[in-house]
Amino acid sequence: MTGTPRVVVTGLGTVNPLGLSIDEFWQSAVAGKNGIGLITRFDTEKFFVKVAGEVKGFDAYSYMDPKVADRNPRAVHYGLAAAQEAMRMAGIDMNKEVRERVGISVACMSESDYVVRQAEILEKRGPRRVDPLFVARSGPSGPSMQMGMLFEARGPNTSVNSLCAAGADSIGTAMMYLKMGYADVMIAGGTDSCLSPVGMAGLDILGALTREADPAIASRPFDANRSGFVFGEGAGIVVLETLEHARARDAEILAELAGAGWTFDAFDQTAPASEPEAYAMKVAMQTAGVSPDDIQYVNAHGTSTRLNDPTETNALKLAFGDHAYKLAISSTKSMMGHAITAGGAIESIACILSIRTGVLHPTINYQTPDPECDLDYVPNTAREVPVKVCLTDSFGLGGENCCLVFKRFEG
After folding, report:
1. 301 catalytic, yes or no?
2. pLDDT score of 368 more than 80
3. How big is the CA angle at 157 (ends 153 and 162), to the nearest 5 degrees?
4. Which of 77, 107, 127, 399 would bridge with 341, disulfide CB 3.0–4.6 Å?
5. Can you tell me the distance from the alpha carbon of 393 to that of 402, in angstroms, rounded to the nearest whole number?
Protein backbone atom coordinates (compact mmCIF):
# COMPACT_ATOMS: atom_id res chain seq x y z
CA MET A 1 0.00 0.00 0.00
CA THR A 2 2.83 2.34 -0.89
CA GLY A 3 1.79 5.97 -1.16
CA THR A 4 -1.33 5.60 0.95
CA PRO A 5 -1.68 7.05 4.47
CA ARG A 6 -0.34 5.13 7.42
CA VAL A 7 -3.02 4.19 9.96
CA VAL A 8 -2.41 4.37 13.69
CA VAL A 9 -4.33 3.46 16.84
CA THR A 10 -4.93 6.21 19.39
CA GLY A 11 -7.76 4.90 21.56
CA LEU A 12 -9.03 1.64 23.07
CA GLY A 13 -12.21 0.69 24.89
CA THR A 14 -13.79 -2.55 26.01
CA VAL A 15 -16.56 -4.17 28.01
CA ASN A 16 -16.20 -7.93 28.35
CA PRO A 17 -16.32 -10.81 30.86
CA LEU A 18 -12.82 -9.96 32.10
CA GLY A 19 -13.55 -6.30 32.89
CA LEU A 20 -15.52 -3.17 32.17
CA SER A 21 -12.51 -1.12 31.05
CA ILE A 22 -9.18 -1.53 29.29
CA ASP A 23 -7.26 -1.57 32.59
CA GLU A 24 -9.55 -4.17 34.18
CA PHE A 25 -9.47 -6.33 31.08
CA TRP A 26 -5.71 -6.31 30.72
CA GLN A 27 -4.97 -6.92 34.39
CA SER A 28 -7.32 -9.90 34.33
CA ALA A 29 -5.97 -11.25 31.06
CA VAL A 30 -2.32 -11.05 32.11
CA ALA A 31 -3.20 -12.72 35.41
CA GLY A 32 -4.90 -15.56 33.54
CA LYS A 33 -8.21 -14.87 35.26
CA ASN A 34 -11.21 -16.92 34.22
CA GLY A 35 -14.18 -14.77 33.24
CA ILE A 36 -16.45 -17.73 32.45
CA GLY A 37 -19.20 -18.78 34.85
CA LEU A 38 -22.57 -20.46 35.17
CA ILE A 39 -25.23 -18.76 33.07
CA THR A 40 -27.35 -16.34 35.12
CA ARG A 41 -29.18 -14.47 32.36
CA PHE A 42 -31.75 -17.18 31.65
CA ASP A 43 -32.87 -20.57 32.95
CA THR A 44 -30.68 -23.37 31.58
CA GLU A 45 -32.73 -26.26 32.96
CA LYS A 46 -33.62 -27.51 29.47
CA PHE A 47 -30.09 -27.02 28.11
CA PHE A 48 -27.03 -29.24 28.14
CA VAL A 49 -24.90 -26.10 28.08
CA LYS A 50 -24.59 -24.40 31.47
CA VAL A 51 -21.68 -21.95 31.17
CA ALA A 52 -20.95 -18.73 29.31
CA GLY A 53 -18.76 -15.64 29.35
CA GLU A 54 -21.28 -13.08 30.61
CA VAL A 55 -20.49 -9.41 31.16
CA LYS A 56 -20.86 -8.81 34.89
CA GLY A 57 -21.70 -5.67 36.89
CA PHE A 58 -22.49 -3.51 33.88
CA ASP A 59 -24.89 -0.59 34.39
CA ALA A 60 -25.99 0.95 31.10
CA TYR A 61 -27.35 4.06 32.85
CA SER A 62 -23.80 4.97 33.90
CA TYR A 63 -22.81 5.41 30.27
CA MET A 64 -25.79 6.87 28.42
CA ASP A 65 -29.06 8.73 28.58
CA PRO A 66 -31.81 6.56 30.12
CA LYS A 67 -33.89 6.88 26.96
CA VAL A 68 -31.06 5.47 24.87
CA ALA A 69 -30.51 2.68 27.40
CA ASP A 70 -34.20 1.78 27.57
CA ARG A 71 -34.75 1.78 23.81
CA ASN A 72 -31.72 -0.27 22.80
CA PRO A 73 -30.41 -3.80 23.38
CA ARG A 74 -27.30 -4.81 25.31
CA ALA A 75 -25.11 -4.78 22.20
CA VAL A 76 -25.70 -1.04 21.87
CA HIS A 77 -25.05 -0.55 25.59
CA TYR A 78 -21.73 -2.38 25.47
CA GLY A 79 -20.67 -0.68 22.26
CA LEU A 80 -21.44 2.85 23.45
CA ALA A 81 -19.61 2.26 26.73
CA ALA A 82 -16.50 0.93 24.96
CA ALA A 83 -16.60 3.69 22.34
CA GLN A 84 -16.71 6.40 24.99
CA GLU A 85 -13.67 4.92 26.72
CA ALA A 86 -11.80 4.70 23.41
CA MET A 87 -12.63 8.28 22.46
CA ARG A 88 -11.52 9.55 25.89
CA MET A 89 -8.23 7.70 25.56
CA ALA A 90 -7.73 9.09 22.06
CA GLY A 91 -8.47 12.62 23.27
CA ILE A 92 -10.69 13.35 20.27
CA ASP A 93 -12.52 16.69 20.60
CA MET A 94 -15.38 16.50 18.12
CA ASN A 95 -15.77 20.27 18.24
CA LYS A 96 -12.37 20.50 16.58
CA GLU A 97 -13.04 17.83 13.97
CA VAL A 98 -14.65 18.03 10.57
CA ARG A 99 -17.56 15.78 11.48
CA GLU A 100 -17.92 14.45 7.94
CA ARG A 101 -14.35 13.13 8.28
CA VAL A 102 -15.09 11.01 11.37
CA GLY A 103 -16.65 7.62 10.63
CA ILE A 104 -17.87 4.44 12.29
CA SER A 105 -17.23 0.80 11.34
CA VAL A 106 -18.65 -1.47 14.06
CA ALA A 107 -19.77 -5.08 13.74
CA CYS A 108 -22.79 -6.50 15.50
CA MET A 109 -25.13 -9.48 15.47
CA SER A 110 -28.88 -9.04 15.76
CA GLU A 111 -30.07 -9.73 19.31
CA SER A 112 -32.15 -12.89 18.89
CA ASP A 113 -34.00 -12.39 22.19
CA TYR A 114 -35.46 -9.14 20.87
CA VAL A 115 -36.50 -10.72 17.57
CA VAL A 116 -38.14 -13.64 19.39
CA ARG A 117 -40.03 -11.27 21.69
CA GLN A 118 -41.36 -9.30 18.74
CA ALA A 119 -42.47 -12.49 17.03
CA GLU A 120 -44.33 -13.48 20.20
CA ILE A 121 -45.98 -10.05 20.36
CA LEU A 122 -47.09 -10.38 16.74
CA GLU A 123 -48.58 -13.80 17.41
CA LYS A 124 -50.31 -12.92 20.69
CA ARG A 125 -51.24 -9.25 20.30
CA GLY A 126 -51.32 -8.56 16.59
CA PRO A 127 -49.31 -6.51 14.07
CA ARG A 128 -50.13 -3.10 15.57
CA ARG A 129 -48.28 -4.03 18.78
CA VAL A 130 -44.95 -4.79 17.12
CA ASP A 131 -42.16 -2.29 17.83
CA PRO A 132 -42.35 0.39 15.09
CA LEU A 133 -38.55 0.52 15.11
CA PHE A 134 -38.22 -3.24 14.69
CA VAL A 135 -36.34 -3.05 11.39
CA ALA A 136 -33.77 -0.59 12.73
CA ARG A 137 -33.34 -2.34 16.09
CA SER A 138 -33.17 -5.87 14.76
CA GLY A 139 -30.46 -5.11 12.22
CA PRO A 140 -26.71 -5.16 12.84
CA SER A 141 -26.31 -1.41 12.32
CA GLY A 142 -27.91 -0.33 15.61
CA PRO A 143 -24.61 0.24 17.50
CA SER A 144 -22.93 2.06 14.61
CA MET A 145 -25.93 4.36 14.18
CA GLN A 146 -26.11 5.11 17.91
CA MET A 147 -22.37 5.86 18.01
CA GLY A 148 -22.71 8.16 15.04
CA MET A 149 -25.48 10.07 16.81
CA LEU A 150 -23.66 10.12 20.16
CA PHE A 151 -20.51 11.66 18.70
CA GLU A 152 -22.26 13.50 15.85
CA ALA A 153 -19.90 11.72 13.48
CA ARG A 154 -21.16 12.21 9.93
CA GLY A 155 -18.52 10.32 8.00
CA PRO A 156 -18.76 6.73 6.67
CA ASN A 157 -21.01 4.63 8.90
CA THR A 158 -21.18 0.89 8.38
CA SER A 159 -21.71 -2.40 10.16
CA VAL A 160 -19.78 -5.41 8.93
CA ASN A 161 -21.28 -8.82 9.61
CA SER A 162 -18.89 -11.64 8.84
CA LEU A 163 -19.90 -13.56 11.97
CA CYS A 164 -16.89 -14.59 14.08
CA ALA A 165 -14.49 -12.56 11.90
CA ALA A 166 -16.58 -9.39 12.04
CA GLY A 167 -14.77 -7.54 14.85
CA ALA A 168 -11.43 -7.73 13.06
CA ASP A 169 -13.13 -7.27 9.69
CA SER A 170 -14.66 -3.97 10.86
CA ILE A 171 -11.25 -2.71 11.97
CA GLY A 172 -9.72 -3.70 8.65
CA THR A 173 -12.58 -2.03 6.79
CA ALA A 174 -12.05 1.15 8.79
CA MET A 175 -8.37 1.05 7.87
CA MET A 176 -9.35 0.97 4.21
CA TYR A 177 -11.65 4.00 4.60
CA LEU A 178 -8.68 5.90 6.04
CA LYS A 179 -6.20 4.73 3.44
CA MET A 180 -8.58 5.57 0.61
CA GLY A 181 -9.11 9.10 1.92
CA TYR A 182 -12.75 8.90 2.99
CA ALA A 183 -12.04 9.81 6.63
CA ASP A 184 -9.42 11.12 9.03
CA VAL A 185 -10.73 9.25 12.09
CA MET A 186 -12.62 5.95 12.34
CA ILE A 187 -14.23 4.42 15.41
CA ALA A 188 -14.04 0.69 14.75
CA GLY A 189 -14.55 -2.72 16.32
CA GLY A 190 -17.40 -4.95 17.36
CA THR A 191 -20.09 -5.42 19.96
CA ASP A 192 -22.21 -8.47 20.67
CA SER A 193 -24.96 -9.63 23.00
CA CYS A 194 -26.44 -12.55 21.08
CA LEU A 195 -25.99 -14.82 24.11
CA SER A 196 -29.61 -15.97 24.42
CA PRO A 197 -31.64 -19.17 24.69
CA VAL A 198 -32.35 -19.45 20.96
CA GLY A 199 -28.79 -18.56 19.98
CA MET A 200 -27.34 -21.05 22.42
CA ALA A 201 -29.76 -23.76 21.31
CA GLY A 202 -28.71 -23.36 17.69
CA LEU A 203 -25.00 -23.48 18.41
CA ASP A 204 -25.41 -26.45 20.74
CA ILE A 205 -27.33 -28.44 18.13
CA LEU A 206 -24.53 -27.58 15.68
CA GLY A 207 -22.09 -29.18 18.12
CA ALA A 208 -20.01 -26.01 18.51
CA LEU A 209 -20.52 -25.37 22.24
CA THR A 210 -18.89 -27.20 25.12
CA ARG A 211 -21.12 -29.04 27.55
CA GLU A 212 -18.42 -28.95 30.20
CA ALA A 213 -20.17 -28.21 33.50
CA ASP A 214 -17.14 -26.73 35.31
CA PRO A 215 -16.69 -23.06 34.29
CA ALA A 216 -13.07 -23.12 35.44
CA ILE A 217 -12.01 -25.48 32.65
CA ALA A 218 -14.77 -25.02 30.09
CA SER A 219 -12.63 -23.22 27.50
CA ARG A 220 -9.45 -25.12 26.66
CA PRO A 221 -8.04 -23.93 23.33
CA PHE A 222 -5.48 -26.24 21.73
CA ASP A 223 -5.71 -28.70 24.66
CA ALA A 224 -6.35 -32.35 23.80
CA ASN A 225 -9.41 -32.39 26.06
CA ARG A 226 -11.17 -29.37 24.52
CA SER A 227 -14.82 -30.02 23.76
CA GLY A 228 -16.21 -26.86 22.14
CA PHE A 229 -16.29 -23.12 22.57
CA VAL A 230 -17.90 -21.08 25.32
CA PHE A 231 -20.53 -18.52 24.28
CA GLY A 232 -19.45 -14.99 25.27
CA GLU A 233 -20.39 -11.36 24.78
CA GLY A 234 -18.97 -7.85 25.06
CA ALA A 235 -17.49 -5.06 22.99
CA GLY A 236 -14.10 -3.93 21.75
CA ILE A 237 -13.60 -0.53 20.13
CA VAL A 238 -10.49 1.15 18.73
CA VAL A 239 -9.96 4.67 17.44
CA LEU A 240 -7.98 4.71 14.21
CA GLU A 241 -6.53 7.79 12.54
CA THR A 242 -4.31 8.64 9.65
CA LEU A 243 -0.82 9.30 10.92
CA GLU A 244 -0.97 12.84 9.53
CA HIS A 245 -4.15 13.59 11.50
CA ALA A 246 -2.82 12.08 14.72
CA ARG A 247 0.41 14.06 14.46
CA ALA A 248 -1.44 17.29 13.70
CA ARG A 249 -3.24 17.09 17.04
CA ASP A 250 -0.19 15.68 18.90
CA ALA A 251 -1.98 12.46 19.84
CA GLU A 252 -0.35 9.60 21.71
CA ILE A 253 0.06 6.74 19.24
CA LEU A 254 -0.49 3.28 20.73
CA ALA A 255 0.41 1.17 17.69
CA GLU A 256 0.25 1.10 13.92
CA LEU A 257 -2.34 -0.96 12.06
CA ALA A 258 -0.08 -1.97 9.22
CA GLY A 259 -1.98 -4.54 7.19
CA ALA A 260 -5.04 -6.70 6.71
CA GLY A 261 -5.92 -9.82 4.76
CA TRP A 262 -9.30 -11.27 3.82
CA THR A 263 -10.29 -14.59 2.29
CA PHE A 264 -13.30 -16.87 2.07
CA ASP A 265 -13.02 -20.66 2.46
CA ALA A 266 -15.63 -21.50 -0.22
CA PHE A 267 -15.55 -24.93 1.37
CA ASP A 268 -18.27 -25.76 3.90
CA GLN A 269 -21.05 -23.98 5.81
CA THR A 270 -19.48 -24.82 9.18
CA ALA A 271 -16.11 -26.56 8.77
CA PRO A 272 -12.97 -24.40 8.36
CA ALA A 273 -10.17 -24.83 5.83
CA SER A 274 -6.47 -24.23 6.52
CA GLU A 275 -5.36 -23.01 3.09
CA PRO A 276 -7.63 -19.93 2.84
CA GLU A 277 -6.89 -19.07 6.48
CA ALA A 278 -3.16 -19.20 5.73
CA TYR A 279 -3.61 -17.06 2.63
CA ALA A 280 -5.37 -14.37 4.69
CA MET A 281 -2.37 -14.33 7.03
CA LYS A 282 0.02 -14.03 4.09
CA VAL A 283 -1.97 -11.15 2.56
CA ALA A 284 -2.06 -9.35 5.92
CA MET A 285 1.72 -9.64 6.22
CA GLN A 286 2.27 -8.61 2.61
CA THR A 287 0.13 -5.48 2.92
CA ALA A 288 1.90 -4.67 6.19
CA GLY A 289 5.27 -4.91 4.49
CA VAL A 290 6.57 -7.57 6.88
CA SER A 291 7.86 -11.10 6.41
CA PRO A 292 6.76 -14.14 8.45
CA ASP A 293 10.04 -13.98 10.37
CA ASP A 294 9.15 -10.47 11.57
CA ILE A 295 6.06 -11.68 13.45
CA GLN A 296 6.71 -12.49 17.09
CA TYR A 297 3.22 -13.04 18.44
CA VAL A 298 -0.12 -14.30 17.14
CA ASN A 299 -3.34 -13.75 19.00
CA ALA A 300 -5.13 -16.82 17.73
CA HIS A 301 -8.76 -17.36 16.88
CA GLY A 302 -8.34 -20.24 19.33
CA THR A 303 -11.97 -21.25 19.82
CA SER A 304 -11.43 -24.52 21.74
CA THR A 305 -13.36 -26.67 19.26
CA ARG A 306 -12.19 -30.07 18.09
CA LEU A 307 -11.94 -28.95 14.46
CA ASN A 308 -10.99 -25.27 14.53
CA ASP A 309 -7.85 -25.46 16.68
CA PRO A 310 -5.90 -28.01 14.58
CA THR A 311 -7.10 -26.30 11.39
CA GLU A 312 -5.74 -22.98 12.65
CA THR A 313 -2.50 -24.63 13.79
CA ASN A 314 -2.03 -26.09 10.32
CA ALA A 315 -2.81 -22.71 8.75
CA LEU A 316 -0.10 -21.09 10.87
CA LYS A 317 2.38 -23.70 9.64
CA LEU A 318 1.36 -23.07 6.03
CA ALA A 319 1.72 -19.30 6.43
CA PHE A 320 4.87 -19.20 8.55
CA GLY A 321 6.75 -22.37 7.65
CA ASP A 322 9.40 -23.32 10.20
CA HIS A 323 8.96 -19.94 11.90
CA ALA A 324 5.59 -21.16 13.20
CA TYR A 325 7.47 -23.05 15.89
CA LYS A 326 9.13 -19.81 17.04
CA LEU A 327 5.86 -17.89 17.37
CA ALA A 328 4.28 -17.16 20.72
CA ILE A 329 0.54 -17.82 20.33
CA SER A 330 -2.28 -17.27 22.80
CA SER A 331 -6.06 -17.41 22.89
CA THR A 332 -8.04 -14.68 24.64
CA LYS A 333 -11.11 -16.93 24.33
CA SER A 334 -9.61 -19.28 26.91
CA MET A 335 -10.54 -16.71 29.57
CA MET A 336 -13.71 -15.04 28.30
CA GLY A 337 -15.24 -17.33 25.72
CA HIS A 338 -16.16 -16.38 22.17
CA ALA A 339 -17.81 -12.96 21.89
CA ILE A 340 -18.73 -13.66 18.24
CA THR A 341 -18.82 -10.32 16.35
CA ALA A 342 -16.86 -8.61 19.15
CA GLY A 343 -14.24 -11.34 19.54
CA GLY A 344 -11.79 -10.19 16.87
CA ALA A 345 -11.98 -6.59 18.08
CA ILE A 346 -11.20 -7.53 21.69
CA GLU A 347 -8.37 -9.74 20.46
CA SER A 348 -7.00 -6.85 18.40
CA ILE A 349 -6.94 -4.81 21.59
CA ALA A 350 -4.99 -7.62 23.26
CA CYS A 351 -2.42 -7.39 20.45
CA ILE A 352 -2.09 -3.63 20.87
CA LEU A 353 -1.69 -3.97 24.64
CA SER A 354 0.97 -6.64 24.15
CA ILE A 355 2.92 -4.20 22.00
CA ARG A 356 2.44 -1.46 24.59
CA THR A 357 3.33 -3.50 27.69
CA GLY A 358 5.73 -6.15 26.39
CA VAL A 359 3.56 -8.84 28.01
CA LEU A 360 1.65 -11.69 26.36
CA HIS A 361 -1.40 -12.98 28.16
CA PRO A 362 -1.57 -16.77 28.53
CA THR A 363 -3.80 -19.45 27.10
CA ILE A 364 -5.29 -20.84 30.29
CA ASN A 365 -6.45 -24.43 30.91
CA TYR A 366 -3.72 -25.84 28.69
CA GLN A 367 -2.82 -29.11 30.39
CA THR A 368 -2.76 -31.98 27.90
CA PRO A 369 -0.88 -31.47 24.61
CA ASP A 370 -2.59 -32.46 21.38
CA PRO A 371 -0.26 -33.91 18.71
CA GLU A 372 -2.21 -31.93 16.09
CA CYS A 373 -1.68 -28.69 18.03
CA ASP A 374 2.06 -28.65 18.63
CA LEU A 375 3.00 -24.95 18.66
CA ASP A 376 3.81 -22.60 21.55
CA TYR A 377 0.47 -21.47 22.99
CA VAL A 378 1.89 -19.48 25.95
CA PRO A 379 0.37 -22.00 28.36
CA ASN A 380 -1.18 -20.83 31.64
CA THR A 381 1.30 -18.09 32.55
CA ALA A 382 1.88 -14.67 31.02
CA ARG A 383 5.20 -14.07 29.32
CA GLU A 384 7.34 -10.97 28.87
CA VAL A 385 8.22 -10.45 25.21
CA PRO A 386 9.21 -7.10 23.65
CA VAL A 387 6.70 -7.37 20.81
CA LYS A 388 7.36 -5.29 17.72
CA VAL A 389 5.03 -6.97 15.23
CA CYS A 390 2.03 -9.21 15.84
CA LEU A 391 -0.87 -10.73 13.97
CA THR A 392 -4.41 -11.59 15.01
CA ASP A 393 -6.52 -14.27 13.33
CA SER A 394 -10.32 -14.22 13.05
CA PHE A 395 -12.19 -16.93 11.20
CA GLY A 396 -15.95 -16.67 10.77
CA LEU A 397 -18.42 -19.52 10.84
CA GLY A 398 -18.96 -20.42 7.21
CA GLY A 399 -15.47 -19.44 6.10
CA GLU A 400 -15.09 -15.65 6.30
CA ASN A 401 -11.50 -14.91 7.34
CA CYS A 402 -9.78 -11.69 8.38
CA CYS A 403 -6.26 -11.24 9.74
CA LEU A 404 -4.70 -7.99 10.95
CA VAL A 405 -1.06 -7.00 11.53
CA PHE A 406 -0.18 -4.48 14.23
CA LYS A 407 3.28 -2.93 14.66
CA ARG A 408 4.99 -0.93 17.35
CA PHE A 409 4.84 2.63 16.11
CA GLU A 410 8.12 4.00 14.88
CA GLY A 411 7.91 7.46 13.37
Report:
1. yes
2. yes
3. 145
4. 107
5. 6
Q: Which residues contact 308 (CB under 8 A, 6 or more apart)?
A: 229, 272, 301, 395
User: Which of the residues 301, 351, 361, 403 is marked catalytic?
Assistant: 301
**What are the residue boundaries of the structural domains of the chain, listed by start?**
7-248, 260-407
Q: What class has domain 260-407?
A: alpha beta
Q: Which of 77, 194, 245, 338 is catalytic?
A: 338
Rg (CA), the chain: 20
pLDDT per residue as tens digits for the range 53-103: 999 999 999 999 999 999 888 999 999 999 999 999 999 999 999 999 999
Assigned CATH class of 7-248: alpha beta
140-160 tens-digit pLDDT: 899 999 999 999 999 999 999
Nearest-angstrom CA–CA distance, 341 and 229: 14
Q: How confident is the model at residue 2 (pLDDT cuts 50, 70, 90)?
A: very low
Q: Whole-prediction pTM value?
A: 0.96
Residue 402: active-site member: no
Tell me the average pLDDT of the chain.
96
Burial 74-84, CB ≥16 within 10 A → b, else e? bbbbbbbbbbb
d(CA 270, CA 235): 24
Q: How far apart are CA 146 and CA 143, in angstroms?
A: 5
Looking at residue 133, what is its pLDDT?
83
Cβ contact 307:271 at 8 Å: yes
260-407 has the same fold as 7-248: yes
The single-letter DSSP state of residue 251 is P
Annotation marks residue 164 as catalytic: yes
| Active-site residue (options: 164, 351, 390, 402) | 164
DSSP state of 389: E
